[in-house]
Amino acid sequence: MPLEITSYKNIWKVSYPIIAGSIAQNIINVVDTAFLGRLGPIELGAAGNAIIFYFAFIVLGMGFGIGGEIIVGRRNGEKNFTEIGRVIDHCFYVLIPLSVVLFVVMNLFAYDIMALTIVNPEILSKGAEYIDYRMYGIFFAFANICFRTFFIGITKTSILIWSTSVMAIVNILFDYLLIFGNHGFPELGVKGAAIASILAEMSALIYFLIYVFSKVDRKKYGLLYFKSIRNSIIKRLIKVSSPIMIQYFIAVSSWLIFFLIIEKMGTRELAISHIIRSIYMVLMVPLFGFASATNALVSNIIGLGRKEEVIAFTRKVVFLTIIMTAFILPINLVIPESMISLFTTDFSLVEESIPVLYIISISMFVFSIAEIVFSAVSGTGNTVISLTIEIATLVIYLLSAYYIAIMLKAPLHIVWCTEFIYFGIMGALSILYLRFGNWRNKVI
Question: Which listed site, 40, 134, 161, 201, has its alpha carbon 20 to 30 Å from 212?
Answer without folding.
Answer: 134
